[in-house]
Amino acid sequence: CKNIQMNQSGTPINRDRVHRVEQAADGSGWGAPTVAVEGTNTSAPDDLSCSPGVVTVGTPGQDEEHHMYYVGAARAEGMTLYLLHAVSADAGGESWARRGLVSGGWPQPFPGYFETPTPLLDPATKQLALYVPGRLKRGSTEVSGVFVSRSADTHQFSAPAFVPSTPKAVQAGRVVL
């Protein structure tokens, strides 16, 4: 994600947007970044769009789709966090269609902090698992961990189960398995 100043209705405003950049085939350098996903206005859940995770579903060259899960926040709601979904049917994930908030049991807005969703497809069951590092308030204590949610259709997710981390104050980041 990249915070860039832009003009909205004649007013300069900073907005986080998810960018896409591609490395040259020979590894010699990177191309120019393009905007993959951006918000629409300061009160929309995707006003500040950041922390993407992408998974590819389907057969290459046939029904392949890229699914991006990313964190959004609406400035007008005091930085309340949402989980959003976008899809690309391009072989290289060049153009993205925003699908909006994920649905099902995932709470929107989220009652805690989270970032950097990591989607993983289980090829045996064709089920998508989403691992989302974050923090939850338990009474007066904040606990770090990973939220785990599942989907059979890539858009509706189960309510996230919270798995506390060790040590307890671990910061969020990309999950690597």
Walk me through the topology:
Elements: E1 2-8, E2 11-20, E3 34-38, E4 48-57, E5 65-74, E6 80-88, E7 97-101, E8 103-104, E9 113-114, E10 118-122, E11 127-138, E12 141-151, E13 156-157, E14 161-164
Parallel strand pairs: 8-13
Antiparallel strand pairs: 1-2, 2-3, 4-5, 5-6, 6-7, 9-11, 10-11, 11-12, 12-14
Point out poorly predicted stretches: none
Compute the CA-based radius of gyration.
17 Å
Strand content: over 45%
- Which structural category do the helix and sheet elements fall into? mainly beta
Give average pLDDT, whole number.
Answer: 84
Q: How many strand units?
A: 14
Main sheet specs: 5 strands, antiparallel
Shape: globular
SSE series: EEEEEEEEEEEEEE
Q: Can you count the helices?
A: 0
- Report the helical percentage: under 10%
Distance between the termini: 23 Å
Report what the structure shows.
The structure is a single chain. A hairpin with an 8-residue loop joins strand 6 and strand 7. This protein is 0% helix and 53% strand. It has no helices and 14 strands. With 177 residues, it is mainly beta.
Can you summarize this structure?
The protein is mainly beta and 177 residues long. The chain has strands at 2-8, 11-20, 34-38, 48-57, 65-74, 80-88, 97-101, 103-104, 113-114, 118-122, 127-138, 141-151, 156-157, 161-164.
